[in-house]
Request: fold
Amino acid sequence: MYSPQAANHNLPVEPNRFIGRARDVEELCALFADERVVTLCGVGGIGKTRLALRVAERLVHRFPGGVRLVELARLTRADLVAKELAGVLGVREEGARPLADGLIENLRGARTLLVLDNCEHLVEACAELVARLVASCPDLRVLVTSREPLRIPQELIWRVPPLDLPDARRPDAESVLLFMERATAAGIRISLDVLPDVADLCVALDGLPLALELAAARTKVLSPRQIIDRIGDRFTLLTSGDRTAPARHRTLLATVQWSHDLLEEKEKALLHRLSVFPGDFDLAFAEQVCHDRHLLQHEVLDLLSGLVDKSLVIGEGERFRLLATIRQFAAERLAEAGESDRFAERHLREVLAVQARGLRVTFEEQRMERPDRLEAFQRASALVDDSRAALDWAIRAGDARAGIELCLIAAAPLAVAGDAAETADWLGLLLAMDVSAVDPSDLLMAKSFIAYGLEARDELRQARELAVEGVEGLRAGAYHFRLGVVYAIAVRVLLRLGEREASRRWLEELIERARAHADRFTLAAALLYRSTLALADSRLREAQRHVEEALRAAREHGHPWIIAQVSLQLGVLAEARGDLEAALGHLAAAVPLNEELDNRAELARVLSRSGRVAGQLGDFAAARRHLARSLALAKGTGQRLTIAHCLSALSVLAEKEGDLEGAVLTAAAVQRLRESVGQPASRARTDELMARARAELGDGRAAAMWAKGGELSPEEAAGRVLEQEHVSAVDPPPVRRRTVLTAREQEIASLLMRGLSNRAIGEELVISPATVARHIANIMDKLGFTSRAQIAVWAAEHDLGSA
Amino acid sequence: MFGPGFLSTVSGMDRVVAVDPGTGLPLTEAQLDAWTVAAVLRLRKRGVREGDAVLICLPTGTDLLVAVNAVIALGAVAMPLAYPPSPEAVHGVAARVMISDRPELAEESRVRVVVSPHELAG
Reply:
């Protein structure tokens, strides 16, 4: 949920104690002083993710822009990488602009650390995106975990080794400590006389953390010696299979296989089936998807707890998940059993069921309490990963019918959450398949939903054709909620294209039918359009009448999204008739509703309008407050048009306050921003402002301010008027370390000035040339120099020659 | 005050200390000094500390000379390997850093960071 004081990171709490790797953590933290991208490489189970999270947690205080973890294991398609990152950062698509632009807008200007976890299956997409972001955002750092490096120029590859192994001198090596810690945490007491066996086990398991955890979880029933023997057997079996895999990988597989083989049959079956979940899941969903005649629904809880005890499943509160390595193993076993398709299908059906309930409770059922609607909406929205996986399966299985059905059901929450475009992408893929088994009315509806996605990306011409085809083909049928959506899409597209009459025709028909079926959500949305049309014709009183009727319907329905939309329109109308106080009140009512929905892009738009209205009222302090908040939200969600609106409002504000320079500066920034978005502003106000500025400031000064405003970033320009302390886009210049050289270093600096080589200096001082080289490196470190010549010059300037 | 080449015009810093058998290019005293210091700074940034072991696996040549010099200058322990190397040579070695143009050697070792000769000079 939205909170203004959002934590500066989204790192999970460590599930258990982190053992060892102290120097590694320290060195990795230090690397980020210079490195832009560090990739932790290594085989599965070697502990890349835990190390990355540990390092990230240590770095939180050094990244005021935040530390953001992006988990990629659950994604199956390369084009979802940017989307997932956008989801984590809260960036929304804005019209036709590529999502990466929004990401850059969000990441620009504040020191941010991104942690991209498990990139190996999407390495090319990650490499491309990271290279682009790093090039455009100078303060961005990226920590990657992957079995394969990204292979981009900015990357430092850091190979994660196994934990240190014990030997005669160090019996308490990291690997032993980890084993003991996990065994103890599981309530197992290891007697001192088996310590040599533990050491042998650590060596046999190559010091691999995941292998050690799996083994430790079994010491309740097996002694360390027994485990060594049994894994040894597994290992021989396995090596005969794949001799080319790296030794560490073979060790891990052998251990996973061994731990798996110890499970009871039902536990095995459940573990295999859990691999159909792309990300985390809760008990109820696992029960629904994984049960059958042999594994009953009520047994799932006990079996799942057993798997958690054996470290094969990770439990985090009420959610569960599988490590990537285990999930892959489990998926292979499910495939061997010939059950992959069956459970992928089951998963798809259950996702459909949950989404259908979400649609029903969120939108279709009339008169519900708002918290209930919100709860169902959030439950459905939380199923994004599962919905994507289910759609993937539908496409692989050639089941266009189920895929389309899921899109049509899931589209409504997605559209309200602001991403109609993704549904359109999926529907595009599905419609390209054999659709002979799909109900013709579903096909028409799918086209209509694609039109919605196209409209969101400003591709109005293509949207029009599909939207009109949809509504004309479907209107003869019986009314239901989604038919209302089809009407609304056509109304919206035609309205944006300026086809008022056609738009109005569908709108009137929609209002009549929605009213007849008491579909209050759609009725309220349609009445809002009616109000907008009346306002466009300057029929203010009529517009007001419609919005008031919309408000009644929206309140009766109770979904916060529709109430927020109505509040905004009430504000717009109040502003249009000059009742600024009332406008502020209505806009203020929309704020908590959008907060509740975590709809930050919409919240930014509401606040930018509030800022403008407060400015017109002469309440400059409130205007600044609203605009500052709107700017931050707009930047965070990557909405550059909203940023432009805020800057325009600030320009007007500055002019009112007599700050002509600030007004010109911000106006220039608006112009540049709008040009870069491809929506140039009208020149009328700017020309007027510049004429005034030239008269009062002089031609030269006015032109200089205009030029300067075009060079500033939007935040810098805004900061000029907001009079906030501007957060610098770059680090403060490093504090020059006090140039305290030791006596020996001064001596060497003076010899350098005389042009002596290391060898000659060494001879002079009776030390080795290598020691000279070290002293010179130390001098460079202290003075921040990069060449001997710089030292020589510095020595001359500081008169060290006489030393 | 000082031209860019001033250092090499005095005190025999343009004396050739080695000739690379691969490229045939000479290495002057001045170049050796400058590259060694640059390499020291680079290795330190990559986490090498006094007393650490550093694997060096390079063909005989000026890169090797610079690498060994830099590691010794850091107070670290240089562990040169025969070239071309056998993969087993790196197993079980506790070095955290390796200087080599063959990063794949590090796969089954405990090496964290591989520094290429190119990077060492930069």
Summary: Chain B touches chain A at residues 1-2, 4, 6-7, 9-13, 15, 29-30, 32-34, 36-38, 40-41, 44-45, 47, 69-70, 72-75, 103, 106-114 (CB under 8 Å). Chain B has one domain: 13-121.
